[in-house]
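Async update (no meeting this week)

Hi team, since we skipped the sync, here's where things stand on the single-chain job. The sequence we agreed to prioritize is pasted below, unchanged from the tracker. I ran it this morning and attached the output directly underneath so nobody has to dig for it. Comments welcome in thread, and please keep replies under the output.
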Amino acid sequence: MRLHRHGIEMKILRLNSDTFPMTPQELREYERAVIEVVRRETVNESQDDGLLRDLDALAIVSAKVGGSLIKRLEKCKVISRYGSGTDNIDVPSATSCAIVVTNVPDFCLSEVADHTMALMLGLARKLLIMDRSTRAGEWQARLNRPVRRIAGRTLGLVGFGGIAQKVASRAAAFDLRIVATDPRLDSAACARLGVDPVSLPELLELSDFVSLHVPLLPDTFHLIGEGELRRMKPSAFLINTARGAVVDESALVKALKEGWIAGAGLDVYEGLAMFDPSPQVPDHPLFKLENVILTPHSAGCSVDSLEELCQRGAQNAVAVLKGRWPLHCVNPAVVPRISLVGKVG
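Output:
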């Protein structure tokens, strides 16, 4: 059934509806705005050409939205990304097609900060190794797998946005020295949190734990490669809850195998499809290493954060369809297909 509002038909395509099902809160936002929702996991550009041409909005979580698909969105006013990063959207193409792109940049700050700390503590205390040893009756693991005290060691934060700042506030309770690097470093936040600003090379050389908190951009692709890994201490750990391709994964595997660093905690990957609805267990070298903790891109996940994410993603889409600028606009220079009032987010 087609739905109407003031004589105007509105339709949104909600992708990733199997891997990230719609929440009741999200659905209520669209129902209140009298917007018809089409649910799909993926879309076939050629077979679904009629649907794409008829859309007023597109909502996605992990789907890739390239330029060829965007050009088929002849009526679309907004692409709402349910998440913070927009590296899976061709934002320049959307801008040139007069489509507003929105995101939810701050939906899971606490969850990712907690997960970062969990990976750091798990690595430092060798929890997975101790767990496996205990199950095997190897009680002497407490002695022959030595663990170093956490207090007094140094945590380096690469990127110092909202998540990294929450990590800093948590890490301070463990008596860690905290250093950070960011091209747009917030000096007031550094002072408030007791964080020392340093360059990336200094951070790599000083830190016992290096935690990544940067978006995936052209200048952060493979930010951590062989040269950077060789700068780290042999006793140091790398933690990545940001984006997989920020790290050169082949260089990391080599570093872990050859002992350039002590270990890694990874929630994101360059070469693994974490959002495949029918995944196959890959023959990946990381899976064979004992000095790595791996989680399935779950750092941002909690019942609370996913409910909040879906509702706020829907609110962004609804705002544009009702003629308002969304709370967060990724491409504020866009000249939208319809006039929008309010402040550019």
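Quick observations from my side:
Confidence is low (pLDDT under 50) at residues 1-7.
The chain has two domains: 4-107+303-321, 109-294.
Reply here if anything looks off.
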